[in-house]
Amino acid sequence: MGLRPILKGAIFAGAMTVFGASAAMAQNATCEETQFSSKTGEVYLKAETELLQNDNPQAALQHINKLRSMELNCYEQGAVLKLGAAIKIQANDYAGAARDLQAAIDQGYVPEAEKAKTYYQIFQIYLSQNDLQRALDYSKRWMNAGGTPDRDDMWRLAVMNQKLDNNQESLKWAERVFEIDGSNAEREVYDFLIYLYDATGQRAKKAALLEQLLAKNPNERRLWDAIAGDYFQANEERKAFEVQKAMYLGGILQKEDELMRVVNFYNRFNVPYHAARVLEKEMNAGRISKTYDRMELLANLYQVAREFDKAIPVIEEAARMNDSGAMYERLGRSYAELQNWEKTEDAMVKALNAGGVKDRGLVWVLIGQSRYERGDRDGAREAFRNANNRGGRGWLQFMDSEERTEAALVRFEAESLVQDTKNEKERCDRLSVLGDEGLPEACNTVEQRLKDAQEAVKALGNS
To answer: What is the residue range of the signal peptide feature (predicted)?
Structure first.
């Protein structure tokens, strides 16, 4: 059923049938008449019959116009206005119908108990014509007169206010609709509320509603993106990251740029190991292209996470991809972290041979260190001299100091042995008065041992 017959029926039902509404009209203090005269009643019945039974608004209007030319009491005038409104609805003269109903109110032909219903009818008329401002005005009059909106009325009020940019008022009615609908709320209600929360800057409520909707539609990509987007706009990147992570774990993210966003998020929030694991997994699956740059990033992530054993095969593959001296240098550094000194030197030599190393001096320092750690001191000195930088010179000074310290320690130990042997000989000399039988056996060799110790010290002095 369309709006026109609904309005016509509603208006006519409130207009009173010919002789049956005397009690209602009697409530109106401004009109004490309660019925039609026989002459006017006969014409009114003809108009009513043409409209309701014959569906002939033009014929009905002719009878109404005849009535208007007659002398009418207030009761009859009110009935004519209301029936005229129903006729105009049928004839598509909605504005005229609204004016007739308002005139019935203004002229005191509508009792107080019927005013709310009449305002509601005018509200519906203007709403049907998309005259939203007038419709909104009459909705307020209807409620001020005691009208109580039901769920559908609230929804109409929400939509009207939104179209008129009254978003806060619209939100008030939309929230009441959502409360009434509860768990049975339609998607359009969710979407409308989400729009209003966004328009009024209530991001927390919007996020909560999106999460409710997401619980009902967990695979709907648009909802995930909306939640993440809100967190981005609110500069809550950690929360945006958690949403992106959930999308990834749920299998929603499939494109390379989306997957790389997750990798970068992990890295940004100082979780390089997880960033590396995601990147490696997706490269192996073919969803992220295995380029040199991606391999370099993967190596970086593992190294920052100090997962050098995992970084090494990645660096080796990247180095082979374009014979990169820089990547071989990184490989050497990783081996150095693991104290695999032989492979450290091998990788660093390859780095020098491949070229592209930014600081050859640093590479030579690591080569020197690898030789030093393996006991090749001459080779280490050669590498440190090749470095020709502060690091190399520092190592050379350290090795010189180390050797001087070692020589000083040897001399100290030799001189200490001389002094200890002298002390031992003095004790033996004091005991010699007791005869040879009372001497310790060590006294028999003390003089030779003292001589040997003194020769050793002398030899150190000549070296």
So the answer is: 1-26
Q: What φ, ψ does residue 389 adopt, rounded to 5°?
A: -140, 180
**Fold annotation for 1-147:** 1.25.40
Output Rg (C-alpha) for the chain, integer angstroms: 51
For residues 212-226, average pLDDT: 82
Long-range contacts of 299-308 (CB under 8 A, 24+ apart): 299/327, 299/330, 301/267, 301/272, 301/273, 301/275, 301/276, 302/272, 302/273, 302/276, 303/330, 303/333, 303/334, 304/272, 305/272, 305/273, 305/276, 306/337, 307/273, 307/276, 308/334, 308/337, 308/338
Hey, CA dihedral for 222, 225, 227, 229, is it positive or negative? Answer: negative
Domain spans of the chain?
Answer: 1-147, 409-462
Unique residue bearing structure tokens 């990788």: 347
Tens-digit pLDDT profile for residues 287-325: 999 999 999 999 999 989 989 889 889 988 888 887 778
Alpha carbon 158 to its chain centroid, in Å, reads 29
382-391, long-range: CB within 8 Å, 24+ apart, which pairs?
Answer: 387/361, 387/362, 388/361, 388/364, 389/361, 389/362, 389/365, 391/361, 391/362, 391/365
The helix or strand, by DSSP H or E, that contains position 123, with its residue range, turns out to be helix 112-128
DSSP 8-class letter at 75: H
**pTM of the shown model:** 0.52
